[in-house]
Amino acid sequence: MYLITINGIDCSGKTTLVSGLKNTFDATGILLAPHVKTFSNVSVPKRQKLYASDKSKEFENFMTEDISLRRIFVLNKMQHGLPIAMDRGDSTLLAYIMAKNFLVQKKTYTESFVSLKKYFTPICPTLEIFIKVPHEVAMERAKQKGENWGEGFVELTRNGVDALDFVSQNSSSKLFTVDGTMSTEQVLSKVKNEIELFVSDRCLLD
User: Fold this and answer.
1) How many helices (H) and strands (E) does the chain have?
2) Which end of the chain is less congested by CB atoms within 10 angstroms, N or C?
3) What is this structure's pTM?
């Protein structure tokens, strides 16, 4: 059994990538964890309001509830030996909490990471995929989708890029980083190849 997570800031291409990987997931027997009722599928206006809020504890509670609810699903499936893939992995949510703490409480990423480390357990991804895009690219994509990001949203996303880099550098999982500014086809091809190689290696180990 194993867990693959896909991480990146908003509008980095996570959902597009997951959609493109559906056939790969089906062919390899990987089950995609559903979004739960909290952060991962709230409306864009509500998400923007949360991002712009100066109440970092409220923001942290909302995000960690999302992590906890998905953990129940993932642990249940993994206990039955099922491989799982997760869109918007815990590392993404934790990076946004760290970015918010930095902006509101002036906490360093290290301080936040240490206090939030408990949320990394008991699930440690076997493979973490990070889609890297500059915040300017993410904002342009949001505009193309008709999403009007407020200043608080923009500032949090700008810091979210750095926080996500920090989280990836301190991850104990196998990492694969892909340049999200490439075409959708190029990103999909690179990630698909990595997952197929990863699954093949896992089969040899098992």
Assistant:
1) 9, 5
2) C
3) 0.86
